[in-house]
C-alpha cells in the first residue's frame, strides 16, 4: 500500500489507515509530496505525529509529478490519497484512464472538519473506490449530494470516525486556557492581535495557570492553512508580551493537541478539528465568533452557528460556556475504533479479491469554477441549519 500525504492534516488519517493494515503483513510505504521544491512536512511535524516507525519511500515527489506520472502507483494494491480536493480529483481521473490490468484500489479521506466547500470536496473525491468519513453528519450529507447532484451512488462511503480521537488522553482537570490557532482566521493581523490580547485578558481575570496558544505550524513550515509570517501567532504574541506586563504566563506551543489538552481547563478557537477533540474529552469549549469567519455553511458554520459559539467580548463579560447537546455530539463526534479499521481492511481486501467495475466519476458540473459555484449553492441549501 502507498500512503500519499501532501499536508500535515492528512497524517493522522494516513497513520490510522496504516494501523488497519500493518497487522495483516501488508507492505506499506509513506510518500511525502513536495510543493514548489519544498517538502510539505518538516521533521518536527513528522515527529509530532510519530511517523518514525513507517518507511518513507519518497520525500521529493512533487504534486505536479504526481499529476503527470501515475504509473508508479500501479505497483500498489491500494493507494491512500491524502491530497487537497482538486489534486485528488486529477489523480483519480488519471488513474481511471491508466491502461493496466489491475489498477490500485483508491482510498480518499477528509483531513478534519469539512469547511465551506464541503460538497465540492466530496465531488472531487467521489470517484474514489473508498471514501472515508469522519462523522455521521457528513456521511449523510454525501448520500444526499450523490443522489441529487453527483449522479452516482454513495456505496463507496465508509464511516471511519476521527482518527485522533482514539489517542486522546483523559483530561487532567487542567488549569490552562488554550487557544487553538488556525493561521488564517482571523486573517488580518490587526484582528488577530486584538483577539489574542483579549484572550490573555480572560486568562488574567480568571483562575487560569497560564494561557497557551496552540500553533498549527512554525512560521517557516507549510500547512493547509498558511498566512503571512507577520501574522503568525508567535510573532503577534511576542509583540503583545513585549508591549505590556502580562499578569499571567503566556506561551506559544508547537506540541501535539493531545498533550496540550491534557492540562486544559477551557478551550477556545474559531474553526479547528482540535475543538472537536476538546468537546469529545468533555472540556468546556467555546468556538469564537470573530472577524474573518464569514462561513454560511460547512465547517465554519458548524462552529459559528452552534449553541456553544460566542464572541470574545461575551466571554470577557463572564458568559458561561455551554456544552454540546447529545444530538449534536452524536452527529459530529465519532471516534475511529478497531471495528472501523477492520471494516476498511475487509472492504479493501474484498475489492482486491473480487474486482468490481471501475467506479464512475461523478457528473461533470462544467468548468471547475462552475462546479465550485454549483456545489456552494448546494451547501447553502444543505446546511441552512446545523
Using brief descriptors, characterize the structure shown.
386 residues, alpha/beta, Rossmann fold, 2 domains, six-stranded parallel beta sheet, globular, DUF6716
Briefly, what is this?
InterPro entries: DUF6716. The chain is α/β, with parallel strands linked by helices.
Q: What is the residue-averaged pLDDT?
A: 86
CATH architecture field of the largest domain? 3-Layer(aba) Sandwich
Q: Spans of 5+ residues with little confidence (pLDDT < 50)?
A: none
Main sheet summary: 8 strands, mixed
Q: How many domains?
A: 2
First-residue to last-residue Cα separation? 37 Å
Shape: globular
Pfam families: DUF6716
InterPro entries: DUF6716 (IPR046561)
Give your account of this protein's structure.
The chain has 386 residues and is an alpha/beta fold. The protein has two domains: 2-162 and 334-382, Rossmann fold (3-Layer(aba) Sandwich); 173-330, Rossmann fold (3-Layer(aba) Sandwich). The chain has 15 helices and 14 strands. Strands 1, 2, 3, 4, 5, 6, 7 and 8 form an eight-stranded mixed β-sheet that branches. Strands 11-10-9-12-13-14 form a six-stranded parallel β-sheet. Helix 5 crosses helix 15. It is globular, with a radius of gyration of 21 Å. The mean pLDDT is 86.
Write the layout of secondary structure elements.
Elements: E1 2-5, H1 11-22, E2 29-35, E3 38-39, H2 43-48, E4 56-62, H3 63-68, E5 78-82, H4 85-96, E6 105-109, H5 118-125, E7 130-133, H6 136-150, E8 157-159, E9 176-180, H7 189-205, E10 210-214, H8 233-243, E11 249-253, H9 257-261, E12 264-269, H10 273-280, E13 285-289, H11 298-304, E14 310-311, H12 312-316, H13 326-332, H14 338-353, H15 368-382
Parallel strand pairs: 1-2, 1-5, 2-4, 5-6, 6-7, 7-8, 9-10, 9-12, 10-11, 12-13, 13-14
Antiparallel strand pairs: 2-3
Pfam families: DUF6716
InterPro entries: DUF6716
